[in-house]
Amino acid sequence: MTTLLHWNTQIDEDQILWAGFNRKDATVNTIDDEVLDELEAIITMVHSQDCKGLIIYSDKSKGFIGGADISHFSSFKESSDVIYLLKKGQRIFDDLASLSGPTVAM
After folding, report:
1. What is the model's pTM?
2. Gap between the Cα atoms of 1 and 28, Å rounded
3. How many CB atoms lie within 10 A of CB 47?
4. What are the DSSP E strand ranges found in 24-101?
5. Under 8 Å CB-to-CB from 66, ≥6 apart: which residues?
6. Which partner from 57, 63, 85, 87 sits 20 to 30 angstroms from 40, CA to CA?
7. Rounded to whole angstroms, how far apart are CA atoms 43 and 54?
8. Distance CA 10, CA 28 (A)
9. pLDDT tens per residue, range 78-98
10. Cα separation, 104 vs 65, whole angstroms
11. What pLDDT, in 10s, does the model give residues 26-41?
12. Residues 14, 90, 7, 49, CA torsion sign
């Protein structure tokens, strides 16, 4: 399995991939470019391991996902940087939505 910094993954006996989101060094799970890259890797795992489904859950004791990490927005130099990240996020979430098996976020 791929080593991920912000996600704990395992495949159970029913071929369901469990992905626990636990953003490293953060009290709240928020989404940034690195988290998106790892989510994309998880989607690839679902395909490559021939998983029958995906369950995404919070591996933190409180909360699930607080949304985008807006603290990084001030680092963007050009509007094209923002547009790139937004399109990337939309593409990855579209890929997540188009998985053939059931997907649950809990």
Report:
1. 0.92
2. 25
3. 11
4. 53-58
5. 28, 29, 30
6. 63
7. 9
8. 22
9. 999 989 999 999 999 999 999
10. 14
11. 999 999 999 999 999 9
12. positive
The residue whose two tokens read 């996902």 is 65
CA neighbor of 7 nearest in space, from 50, 33, 41, 47: 41
Give the per-residue pLDDT at 35. Answer: 97
Sign, CA dihedral 57-62-66-71, equals negative
Tell me if 74 sits within 8 A of 35, measured CB to CB.
no
Q: Specify the length of the chain in residues.
A: 106
**Where residue 1 falls among pLDDT bands split at 50, 70, 90?**
low
CB proximity list for 9: less than 8 A, separation 6 or greater: 1, 2, 17, 18, 19, 20, 42, 45
- The partner residues of 49 in beta bridges, in order of sequence, read none
Distance, in Å, from the CA atom of 31 to the CA atom of 42, rounded to the nearest integer, reads 14
